[in-house]
Amino acid sequence: MATTKPGAGSWSNGRPPPLENGDRLTRIEFERRYEAMPRVKKAELIEGVVHMPSPVRIERHSRPNSRLNGWLLFYEAGTIGVATGCDATTRLDTDNEPQPDGVLYIEPAFGGQVRISADDYIEGAPELAVEVAASNVSIALNAKMNVYRRTGVREYIVWRVLDQEIDWFVLRDGRYDRLRPDAEGVYRSEIFPGLWLDTAALLRGDIAGMLATVQRGIASPEHGAFVDRLNAASGGPPLTNE
58-233 has which CATH code? Predict the structure, then answer.
């Protein structure tokens, strides 16, 4: 089957060719082909190259992903002006359209750095991105990490499932530095005050313990001050965090 060059927008049978792992495409052409394949649930464009992951395993990806996204959702429930998303296609620039396992962002009306497009995609870098990595650790900690850094994702979390390790990076002066946990092994976000992660509880599957820790973060004075700042950015009055 003859096809035109990527991005030309027309094909001999009127339909785009299927996405293939390793294709080099523009973002527009990537979206066109992706939308023509509704059975494909996840495909990403990283530095102009198509990545299509293998089927999702329950213990290596699905359950860890659920835990982290549940943690983010719990934080959203206690924090005005922030929103989470799971597997949301994210338009970062002309060569990169990843589908992070999780994102946490400040909503545009509250002064965040993303916007939601008319066709319902995230455009711009979310403040925080999360990836659960097993066989794809190399991509998560190299090509994808560089893209997130360059486009302004302010914090980046990678759960290396096979190693049972959490890597948390924070953007400082154009580079990612490692965020260090406190003496109790708890990570505390610099961008989202009160977003605390008890890594030991997470890794042993103690969901109640993990959520109890983030609840303590939500009850902290710094979280209350953060909520007031967000509300003020939206034009609302100061709020009292209870």
Answer: 3.90.1570.10
